[in-house]
């Protein structure tokens, strides 16, 4: 049996690692239950492995630099830079291809190992297919990220199993009634309500992150978690499956009684003044009542928090 060259052994090892990560990525999308995303990822990983196989058979490790660049582009267009990268496997595969290309080329030059005959037509077809695939996909992904108006189901949309199938560990909703002022108009005393989402197994001895989530024009405090109840299902499922840590979510409204109800009236005073209500009234109440990271609900760290009026009711 002919002894394998060092370049071939390195290339074979890298290809096996690429295949392992490709399988990992594919299984991850099987778990998500989104058929379109799964097929797309499966095709992409198949192209990656075919390209690597041709590089191995032709003993041309330097070709893997092209694949490294392509995988970096894939990672870039499938991830939002400001969020934790869900598709980190593409970065790992990118680094692996770069190592394969550089180390393999060095070994090939040192050992004076010749390249092998290979099907350039096959390589060309893979490059063309991958190029068309990436350009089309990048355009659709960009449009999905920048879309305005009504939500649309895109390739990377939330799989239906995460926002349509109720969790076996549902969180609870509470109604929080609180005293505040009409900061946008005459400053009179008013009473308002907000909804509070508590994760399954909420424990007052723990500390939770908290999200204050505002609705859009024309909606109210019920919008996110009751009017569109699939958002609560999604919270429940993502916490249950470990995609996010348990957290508290508060959904208030910036509307105040009948202020600015006249047709054509600008809502800017309500919008811009809500920060005062949030900071002066709602946040102190929420932070004093629920188990968050705030050491005190008062503006002064040294101050102690006094009793605040709240009327919670399970929904």
Task: Record keyword descriptors for this entry.
315 residues, five-stranded mixed sheet, 9 helices, 5 strands
Compact overview of the structure:
This protein is an alpha+beta fold and 315 residues long. It is 50% helix and 10% strand.
Which helices and strands appear, and what pairs or packs with what?
Blueprint lengths: L5 H27 L2 H23 L6 H15 L9 H24 L8 H27 L13 H4 L8 E10 L7 E10 L10 E4 L10 H5 L2 H11 L6 E5 L16 H22 L23 E2 L1
Parallel strand pairs: 3-4
Antiparallel strand pairs: 1-2, 1-5, 2-4
Report on the structure:
This protein is α+β, with helices and mostly antiparallel strands and 315 residues long. The protein has helices spanning 6-32, 35-57, 64-78, 88-111, 120-146, 160-163, 223-227, 230-240, 268-289; strands at residues 172-181, 189-198, 209-212, 247-251, 313-314. α1 (6-32) packs antiparallel against α2, α2 packs antiparallel against α5 and α3 packs antiparallel against α4 (88-111).
Count of DSSP-assigned helices: 9
Number of strands: 5
Question: What's the main sheet like?
Answer: 5 strands, mixed
Globally, the shape reads: elongated
Let me know the average pLDDT. 81
Strand content: 5-15%
**Structural class given helices, strands, pairing?**
alpha+beta
Pattern of helices and strands: HHHHHHEEEHHEHE
Strand order of the largest sheet: 3-4-2-1-5
For the termini, the CA-CA separation is 74 Å
Radius of gyration: 27 Å
Uncertain segments are 148-153, 301-315
Q: Estimate percent helicity.
A: 40-55%
